[in-house]
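Reproducibility note. Readers wishing to regenerate the assembly model reported in the main text can use the exact inputs given here. Chain order matters: entities are listed in the order in which they were concatenated for prediction.
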Amino acid sequence: TGVQPDAAKIALRMNPISHKILVLSGKGGVGKSTVATQLSLALSRRGKKVGILDVDICGPSVPQIMGVPRGEIINSNWGWLPVKHPVHPVSVMSVGFMNSTDRAVIWRGPKKTNLIRQFLSETFWSKLDYLLFDTPPGTSDEHISVVSALKNSNPDGALIVTTGNGLSLTTVGKEITFCRKIGIPILGIIENMSSLVCPCCDEQSELYPSDACASFAEKFGVPFLGKIPLDQRVTVAMDTGQCPHCAHPDSPTVAAVEHILDRI
Ligand code: ADP
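Running the prediction on these inputs yields the following C-alpha cells for the assembly.
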C-alpha cells in the first residue's frame, strides 16, 4: 500500500513527543488500563508532561479512571484539545469521549483504523515527554493501526501487562510474537495482581506461583519489570477517578508502580 494521505500530519503531531509507549495485554481484566493510567499519573507527579490516548474503541475505561467520564474534546484552531486530568497535568484523549458510555459500539476494522488515525493526526498534544497508549486486550485492528501510524515516529515500544496465572501467560506469548512480527520493541512484562494486600494489616498473600511470570519472561528473552500487588483501596480510587498516588501514597501498589517506573 502507498503512503497514507495523513501520514505527514501524524508525524508532525508525534515529533514533539519524546517517548511513545504502548500498553498491551493478552487478556482483559488483568489491569492494563489501571497500569497505563497509574504510570501516567506517576510520571506527571515526577514533573513530566504526559498524555494518555485510549484507543480501546469497544471498551474505553480511561475517562472514568482519570476522573473525566464526561470529558469533551474541543476543536480549536490548533486541532483537537485533549481533556485535562482534574488534578495532575495529564492530557487525556479517549475514543470514549466520542460516544455515549451506555451505547455498545460495534465497528469493523477500517472504521476503527480511520478513527485512530484521526486521533493521531488531529490531537494537539503540544510538547510531551511521554504519550502512553492504552489499547484493547489481545492483538487486533487497533494495535495494527497504532503501530502502523507510528511507523515513522520512532515509538519506544510496548509494555505487556499480565497476571501470573497460566491462562493469562499463554496469551502473553501471543503478544510477544505479535510485537516481534510487527517490529515493535518489548520494553518488558509487568505482573499485576501478584498478591492481595490485606485491608486490615497490609500483609500480602501471593495469588499465583511467585516466579511464574519472571521465568516466563526469561524464557522469551524479554525484561521482567516487576510485580504490582492488588490493593482494594486502589480499586476504589481508580473506580472513582481519584489518583491512587495522592489518595494512598503508602499503598504497596503505588510503591510497586513507582519502582517499575524507575526501571522503564
Ligand atoms: P484491563 O484494562 O486489563 O481490562 P482494568 O485496568 O480495567 O483491566 O482493571 C480491572 C479492575 O481491576 C478495575 O476495577 C481496576 O481498578 C482493578 N485493578 C487492576 N489492577 C489493580 C491493582 N493492582 N490494585 C487494585 N485494583 C486493581
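We highlight two features of this model. The first strand starts at residue 17 and ends at 24. The mean pLDDT is 93.
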